[in-house]
């Protein structure tokens, strides 16, 4: 973003319809290792997770005390974008996910202020998203989303142990995790 800094008094509250920071995502080489910290030492409660078909990525999401969620990301395929990311940047913060009332409105607000958006995907009502490039957001990858699914409650019948074992996949139709083959 270039140009003069807008006067904050000129920006109305809620210009983008931000509901909350849904979660932060941490890129790891091993979710099991990271789970010992975030699920063990920090006491995170399992929410959901699984393997994303065709991406070579496994996720595990935990809710920490106070309601903050952390999503742990691990490559399952050495040719995945996440494996390349880890090779180049190492483990650590990957992105911050912001939940909006209407992601299209948020996209418009960010674009109108000069922020560079990429990977806009509005096809799936359960998870519509766009990303603000890190170079446009002070070094942080921002994921802008809206959703028809409640992500603040655990998915019944799915456990962290099943996710860690690779027994859970994200269902492409429902956008929810399910047991592999189920």
From TrEMBL:
Lineage, uppermost ranks: Bacteria, Bacillati, Actinomycetota, Actinomycetes, Pseudonocardiales
Transmembrane segments: none
Keyword Metal-binding: yes
GO biological process terms, semicolon-separated: L-methylmalonyl-CoA metabolic process
Name of the molecule in the record: Glyoxalase
Keyword flag Secreted: no
Keywords: Metal-binding
Domain VOC: 20-147
MF (Gene Ontology): metal ion binding; methylmalonyl-CoA epimerase activity
Organism for this UniProt entry: Pseudonocardia broussonetiae
